[in-house]
Amino acid sequence: MRAYILKTIDYGDHGKILKAYTETGPISMIARGAKKMESPLRHMTQSSMLIEADLAKGELPTLKEARLLDYFPAIKDDFDKSTVLQCVNELIYVNVGEDDHERLFDFLMRFIGRLLETDAPFELLALFELKFLWFLGAGIHLKDCHLCHTKADLCYDSREGALICVNCAKDPTRIYHGKEIPALLQYYYYADLAAFRPQRPDKTDMKIVLELTDALYAMHLGYKGRAKGILKSLL
Q1: Which end of the chain is more exposed for a tag (fewer CB within 10 A), N or C?
Q2: At a CB cut-off of 8 Å and minimum separation 6, what does 58 contact?
Q3: In this structure, are 106 and 220 located in the same domain?
C-alpha cells in the first residue's frame, strides 16, 4: 500500500513507530531497527515521505519492506514550504476521522504537488485548511451574509465564523474584518486546487486569514496546531 508518513515516534533503542495516512485511512506501523545505520529502512521512515509499504499482519503491524516513492526534496529544502507541510501533517494526524479516505488521500497528494511548484505556500495552506474542514464535516458557508443572505458589502464575523453584511453588522461587541478578508476566504474555500492562482495579499491580511482559520478549527474541533504558531511568526 501507499503510505504517507505524518509523524514518527522512537520505539525502543533502534525502532520507530510510523503514523501514516493511506487511501484506506490512518495507520500505525513499527519499523524495527530503522534507526540503525545499516538498516535499509533508515532513510525511508521519516515524516513527509511517501512509501510503498509491505506490512506483516497484526494490530500494530511491522513494516517488513518499503520502497521510497518520493521524499519531496524541493519542499524540504524550502523552510516556508516545509513548515506548511508540517502544519498539514499535524492537521491530518490529529483531526482525520471517518472520512472518504481515498478522496482525501488524493487531495493530499495533489496539494503536495501544487506546494512543490507554488511561490505562495501560505495561501495554499489557507486553501487546504478551509477545504479540510469540509472533509471533516465542518463545512462553512461563505457565499453570502449568514443573516439576510445578501452578497453585497460583506464583512467577516469571527464570532460566528461566517460572513455578515454591513447592514446586519450592528453589534459593536462583534469582531469584523473588511472586504479584503471575506474575498480571500471565499477564494481559498471555493477555488479548485488545480486552478489555484495566488491572490498576493499583503502580509497583514495573510496573517489575519491564517488566524481566522485557526479560530474556525478551535470553534468546530477544539484544535490548535503547534506548527501553525511557527508559520505565523514568519509573517
Answers
A1: N
A2: none
A3: yes
Q: Alpha-carbon distance 113 to 110, whole Å? A: 5
Same domain as 100, residue 14: no
Cα distance between residue 96 and residue 86, in whole Å: 15
Structural domain boundaries enclosing 212:
79-144+151-233
Give the model's pLDDT for residue 159: 86
Q: In this predicted structure, what is the pLDDT of residue 228?
A: 87
Same domain, yes or no, for 135 and 208? yes
Low-confidence spans in the chain with pLDDT less than 50: none
Dist. CA 186–CA 180, nearest whole Å: 10
Q: Where are the alpha helices (DSSP H) in the chain?
A: 73-76, 79-95, 101-117, 121-135, 180-190, 203-221, 226-233
Query: Which residues are CB-neighbours of 76 under 8 A, at least 6 positions away?
Result: 48, 82
Give the length of the chain: 235
- The DSSP output letter for 42 is G
Are 20 and 136 within one domain? no
**pLDDT of the residue at 78:** 96
Q: Quick: pLDDT tens for 205-219.
A: 999 999 999 999 999
Q: Show the CA angle centred on residue 49, arms to residues 46 and 51, nearest 5°.
A: 105
